[in-house]
Amino acid sequence: MTSPTSLPLDVPHLDEAVAGGARLRRSVLPSGIRLITEDVPGAASASIGFFVPLGSRDETDREYGSSHFLEHLLFKGTPSRSARDVALEFERVGGDFNAATSREQTVYYARVRDRDLGMAVDVLSDMITSSLLDPAEFELERGVILEEIAMAEDDPTDVLWERFYDNFFGEHPLGRPIAGTPESIDASTRDEVWDFYRRHYRPERLVVAIAGRVDHDAVLERLERGLRAGGWDLDARGRPAPRRHDGPSAFARREAFQHIPRELEQTHLILGTPGINATDRRRVPYGLMHHVLGGGMSSRLFHEVRERRGLVYSVFSFGASHTDAGVTGVSASFLPNKAAEAIRVIRGELERIAADGVSEEELADAQGAGAGAGALALESMNARMHRLARSELVLGEYIDLDESIARMNATTTEDIRAIAAEFASGQLTAETIGPITEDAKTELEALV
């Protein structure tokens, strides 16, 4: 394949050869369920994920933390399997299984030998459709989640990123904490979370993505059987849930600069400005820009701030893209007496890449790194599975390695300079945690 494969919601079947001899297949069932698979030659395992486009941004005030609460509760048993049975199904065959909640989706996933893929389909189908949300288990898991929140509160890096998102996005739902707050979890009731589960876990919202050694037709048959056994009506006609609006969405920060006092050895900093949304066509030069600026040990920030001046141990640039908004910036940690100088040097590097762009040599290095990283990622069936899900849930198109490399190689230094200049002109927001000197505060206040 040398061009993207479109994934329209009204096309029931798709079957294509893609890079590396893999086979991409996709089925949209009459009920709206979507199954997308990538059969990889020579694979001896398969990674499977049941994705629901439901995250912290989708919750009302009364529901804060419900998506994450459900992620925990769906492992706690169904009418046919106890929590221990669920664990044993995977562990007796050496498989891995887990779940994750983000701001925009929840996924239940597993990695097993190809011969055990049918079992994984059965168990995950049972969990998605038939979890009991037993009241006793609900109360036990409430305590577990409160412990998880408390553990994160003890980690200054977790605290910094959570508070930065809250400050940066302000009242926009992307600023909400994924796990909720101690107050919202304490206030949750089993009946409210049950209602949340039944309203959102429905056929038209489910995407099942599988990568590895997979027989698409056999999996489709087993998936339908498992979901029907759980009580889902797959005969009712329905369209897949529309993909999220891809913006851009307006939001306003709360404050230009926030500091979180903590008794720590270092000052930790995040500097951020509005970035691009997930479907922005400039995401390739955006990624290449970040490689040059702060993507590794050869990056400008690492070389200038750490290697040349010894001001930090950790410094990197980042870009987080959501469906209707994004954030891009720099994160660093330094001793308080080095903070002001480190901030000045970071600011200088941001200004330099915006004004002068990157050299042809830096661009070629970034393109080579992107191609190599993309190829290496394909050695992981989990990475392939998540790429399939992102294609289906967010992008609306599948882009294989050949096309990804072609897009990188078509990027010019001017493309990178233009996107860097746009971000440099954006409104900066700063968040720090730990001790901070007056000189560092002055530098940040002048910057934002």
How is the secondary structure organized here?
Elements lengths: L4 E2 L6 E5 L5 E6 L5 E6 L5 E8 L13 H8 L9 H9 L4 E6 L4 E8 L3 H14 L4 H19 L2 H14 L12 H6 L2 H11 L6 E6 L3 H14 L27 E4 L6 E8 L8 H12 L5 H9 L5 E8 L4 E9 L4 H18 L3 H18 L3 H15 L1 E2 L2 H9 L3 H12 L4 E5 L4 H10 L1
Parallel strand pairs: 4-8, 9-14
Antiparallel strand pairs: 1-13, 2-3, 3-4, 5-7, 5-8, 6-7, 10-12, 10-14, 11-12
Helix pairs in contact: 3-8, 9-12, 9-15, 10-11, 11-15, 11-16, 12-14
Top CATH class of the largest domain: Alpha Beta
Overall mean pLDDT stands at 96
> What general outline do the C-alpha atoms trace?
globular
N-to-C span: 45 Å
In total, the number of domains comes to: 2
CATH topology of the largest domain: Cytochrome Bc1 Complex, Chain A, domain 1
Unreliable spans are none
Q: How many alpha or pi helices?
A: 16
Q: Give a quick account of the main beta sheet: strands, pairing sense, barrel closure.
A: 7 strands, mixed
Task: Describe the protein.
The strands form three sheets. Strands 2-3-4-8-5-7-6 form a seven-stranded mixed sheet, sandwiched between helices. The model has no long low-confidence stretch (mean pLDDT 96). The protein is globular and about 65 Å long. It has 448 residues and is of the alpha+beta class. The protein has helices at 66-73, 83-91, 117-130, 135-153, 156-169, 182-187, 190-200, 216-229, 283-294, 300-308, 339-356, 360-377, 381-395, 401-409, 413-424, 438-447; strands spanning 5-6, 13-17, 23-28, 34-39, 45-52, 96-101, 106-113, 207-212, 257-260, 267-274, 314-321, 326-334, 397-398, 429-433. The protein folds into two domains: 5-229, 2-Layer Sandwich (Cytochrome Bc1 Complex, Chain A, domain 1), CATH 3.30.830; 257-447, Cytochrome Bc1 Complex, Chain A, domain 1 (2-Layer Sandwich). Helix 3 (117-130) runs parallel beside helix 8 and helix 11 (339-356) packs parallel to helix 16.
